[in-house]
Design goal:
alpha+beta, about 350 residues, ten-stranded antiparallel sheet, about 55% strand, nine-stranded antiparallel sheet, 2 domains, 4 helices
Length: about 350
Amino acid sequence: MVGKVAKISVLLIFLFVAVSLLAQSVEPLPLYIQEYYKAYGRFPKPPDWVKVGTVFVYQEQVGTGTKGVDAYSTQGYNVKIVVGIDKNSGFVAGLQWRITFDLRGNIDFSSQIAQIQFAELESLAEFLSQIARVSPVGVEVQGGYLPDGGFYFAYASGDYYGFTRYNYTLSKEGVLVSSGFLENTSGTSSSVGQLDLIKITNVQFPISRLSQEILRNNYTYQGAIIEGMTGMIMTYFQVNINFDKQVSDGIYSFDSAAITNYTSSRSKVLGTDLIGPNYINPQLLKGEILSIPEIGLRWMVEGQGQMGGIQTGVYIQGVKIASYEYAQNGLLLQYIFRTSMGYQQGRIAR
């Protein structure tokens, strides 16, 4: 009986914390994942067919809306490639590339390794039901199962100063199919966004252990953010990458410390045996590393680079958006990639 009361008390604490965070416009799906992990000590299990090399391709649209009329000013793709899976915790590490185009034709590219999230629909439905019961005035939660076995839910909160709305659709296996947001803080103009799954595919990656030499050394990179039209350097920066710890089998954590002309910051970043913040498994440095013909995305080896390493290039619909040069052992030597304002480049400090 004591154990049951304790479990209920913990659950209520989670719910009150969750409602408090939702009232602050924290996204509900990541919050569900967080609370699920607190309750069960693991993440929602991905479908059995998800493996290293599984690719989720989403179409992304972001912009502004005026008086309810959507106007997307930026469109593109959000590509999530599974590069590591922890069988014990259910954590799925993904190389996530975001490639967007604005109305002027400017291309913005960003890359990170982050968690790819899934849901267990039964627990998600229960989570939303509990949230709905304790939500304050001004908060609305809706959702339910779809005819195909999938699940839809929406969360909205608002007051005199504005409102926020999130909506999600998931497949019956807990894969994110679509998501959207609408945020209004001024009463007239709104920020809007939409993400839609357009393709699931698989690419073949060699599975092999990464060299401990690369993992456990410390590295410094220096570079600049450059304005495209004038070539003016807007910001100088230095990034230090230090090995932190092994999170699980084949997944690692690193300390990243960044210093610019104006600011400094520290963060934890992820890496796997396949790829990390400043390395790649050298087994990948052969021919075509990645190809997704449906959206015209290619990452391929291009020969010898300026620093004597192996040059690779990333292309979208025939346009080069990034270059990475690696040493023979997979260590990143230098890089350059497109941004909406110009480009960012950096190289290892010798």
